[in-house]
Amino acid sequence: MRIGISHLDPLRAGRQCSRKAGTGSVGDAERGAPSRIPGTPFQEDALVKTLARITAAGLVALAASTALAAPMSLKIAFVDPLSGGGASTGEAGLKTFQFMADQINAKNPDLKLEVTGYDNKLNPQESLVQLQKAIDSGARVVVQGNGSSVGAALIDFVGKYNDRNPGKEILYLNYAAVDPALTNAKCNYWHFRFDANSDIKMQALTNYIKGKPEIKKVYLINQDYSHGQAVRAAARAMLKEKRPDIQIVGDEVAPLQKVNDFSPYIAKIKASGADTVITGNWAQDMALLLKAAGDAGLPANFYTYYGGGSGGPTAIKQANLPDRVFQISEGYANIDYKPGHDFEAAFRAKTGQELTYPRVVNLMNILAKATLAAKSTDPKAIAKAMDSIHNDTLYGKDSFIRPDDHQIFQPIYISRFGPVDTAKVLDSENTGWGWTGDGVVEAKDTLLPTTCKMDRPS
User: Fold this and answer.
1) What is the DSSP letter of 137?
2) Rounded to the nearest 5 degrees, what angle is found at the Cα of 38, between the Cα atoms of 36 and 42?
3) What backbone torsions phi and psi does residue 77 show, to the nearest 5 degrees?
4) Strand 111-119 to strand 171-174: parallel, antiparallel, or no bridges (unpaired)?
5) How far is 22 from 10, CA to CA, in rounded Å?
6) Same domain, 108 and 142
7) Which of helix, strand or coil describes residue 361?
């Protein structure tokens, strides 16, 4: 293929025109003698300059049109466990974020979200190492949820990093670390939480329990770190206020994701005579607790924060605990709302798993909405747009960020797990059992005060 010389070099093109016109010899042109083109008053140097200007203008116009056509690109670092006891939970979260990125990119040609996973091994220090790697790779947003101790470390790191690197800020979007301190004493402008904190969930749960006179003896078992400690403290305080007649017959904690057999704990629960267990356990600690309960034939109901997490439904079915495990969450598969049901079906078809993180759908939709509203991928601009944003949840209900502490408020549902008609509703983990509704608390009724004193960037 031959390319016309004028497209490659305006100077050579001018000389070719001069030679064809026959107005000067080659030697004249090389010596810089005036060389004219018949019928025009322009000399070769003027022509060259004109062609150069035209070429430059064309390149500038092409670059501008290319820039306008290119979507805004935003790299998101998913920093959570992808190995060890929390791996199943982390992998489910990563798939959900990546699915949502694909969905949003397909609907918004002006935006390109890219999610990359970084394994933090559920360790705060390793989380900071992985976050630095992500930043070095161009990530401007970090998402994390498993482990409030990790969340606290990230809040501290992000706040200090942004103070030291003005103009290069990063944003921390928290989808599951629910220690209330993260939006109270430890609150930071660059941190937004998209899950109800443990106090908000306990408020919803204890309001539900208040109307259950059959609940008389409660056993608390939680993981021994900030989240677990917050759950047990809130349970004690709120049960005392709303149901002072209830006996708390046990209250203990277990090492986070390190217990391989919960049968000794279940033996103590059984001996206590408890009719109800309240737990904030998640991932392996949730599944193994339920398995041990089934093996021991424990005649108690479980009120959980994360019974529906990966592996939980299978453990409930195998333990044969029909309609005895409840969950307090921002949603479940069988809420009577067709768009939500259709999304769940599409998600399962694409990922091969069920949606255990409806809040991630909310988070990603809000991130996209704020980015498009800001017309920028600058975290400072996104944070400003997100500061008091409202957005419909997956189930068609309003949710909103409170600017005082960047805590989201959304409806909280109480559901139970048991046998369902799979011809009509969705089951979980191919067990033939599924989550069905037992109650809902609207977003406006989940509000709790905050002690946050937030410093805002100028």
Assistant:
1) T
2) 45
3) -100, 120
4) unpaired
5) 19
6) yes
7) helix
Give 70-102 as a DSSP string: SPEEEEEEEEE-SSGGGHHHHHHHHHHHHHHHH
423: exposed, middle or buried (Cβ count in 10 Å: 0-12, 13-18, 19+): exposed
Q: Evaluate whether 184 touches 170 at the Cβ level (below 8 Å).
A: no
Least confident interval from 8-12, 73-77, 321-325, 427-431: 8-12
The residue out of 408, 423, 453 marking a domain boundary is 408
Residue 184 carries which side chain, given as an amino acid letter? N
Q: pLDDT tens-digit profile of 240-260?
A: 999 999 999 999 999 999 999
Question: Would you say the C-alpha torsion 411, 416, 422, 428 has a positive or negative sign?
Answer: positive
CATH of the domain at 141: 3.40.50.2300
Please report how many Cα atoms fall inside a 13 Å half-sphere around the Cα of residue 346, on the Cβ side: 11
The C-alpha torsion from 365 through 371 and 374 to 378, rounded to 10°, is 150
For residues 283 and 296, give the distance between their C-alpha atoms in angstroms, rounded to a whole number: 20
Residue the block writes with tokens 């200090």: 160
Query: pLDDT (tens digit, 9 = 90+) per residue, 296-343?
Result: 999 999 999 999 998 999 999 999 999 999 999 999 999 999 999 999
Same domain membership, residue 256 and residue 116: no
**How many domains are there within the chain?**
2
The residue among 222, 194, 231 whose CA lies nearest residue 399 is: 194
- 201, amino acid identity: K
* 306 SS3 class: coil
- Give a yes or no: residue 46 inside a domain: no
Quote the domain boundaries for residue 116: 72-196+337-408
Cα distances (angstroms) measured from residue 399 to each of 189, 325, 330, 409, 436: 19, 27, 11, 6, 22
Which tokens sit at 23?
């107005």
Residue 410 CA to residue 156 CA, distance in Å, equals 26
Taking the whole predicted model, whether its pTM rises above 0.85 is answered as no
Helices 358-374/379-386 angle, 10° precision: 110
CA 319 to CA 325: how far, in whole Å?
Answer: 11
Q: Does residue 12 carry a pLDDT above 50? A: no
